[in-house]
Design brief:
- The termini are far apart.
- This protein has 5 helices and no strands.
- It has one domain: Four Helix Bundle (Hemerythrin (Met), subunit A) (Up-down Bundle), CATH 1.20.120.
- It is mostly helical.
Amino acid sequence: MKSKIIISVVIASLVIATGLLAQRPDRPMQPRPNRMAALDLTEEQQAKIQDLELKLEKELMPLRSQIPSIEANLKQEMVAEQFNQTKVKSLIEQKAKIESEIELKHLLHHRAIRELLTPEQRKQFDLQALRGRMGHRHGPARPMHPQMPGAEVPPPDLK
């Protein structure tokens, strides 16, 4: 009975963690290229933003590379004969810490871009951010793996 409760808790934790992953915190917060075109950037601004984007990607690469290893360890713990709740909790905390660092870097990147803009461009940039047009997805999460239930469902028509 006790083992069923522990297994249920682990499965619930993984479902919650999967939901958090579906939000894709590792996605850059920079605006899509067509959104940047609406800002009418100077060549100097474009060059500086490209430099910022390169810097962000270099900072995110080592963080992103740690997540698959942690996820693999979590899967191993989920099917292990001897369940180690302390280890699972530690792995989940490590993953959350990395995801939080990634999100912070995205926000700092967004602010750095904003600082390069003129007051008029900032208005447009802020409006795009508030409307959720800064590269973050909104709406129902889709499975990331084709073998997951629901993966065969085509994306909704957004026209």
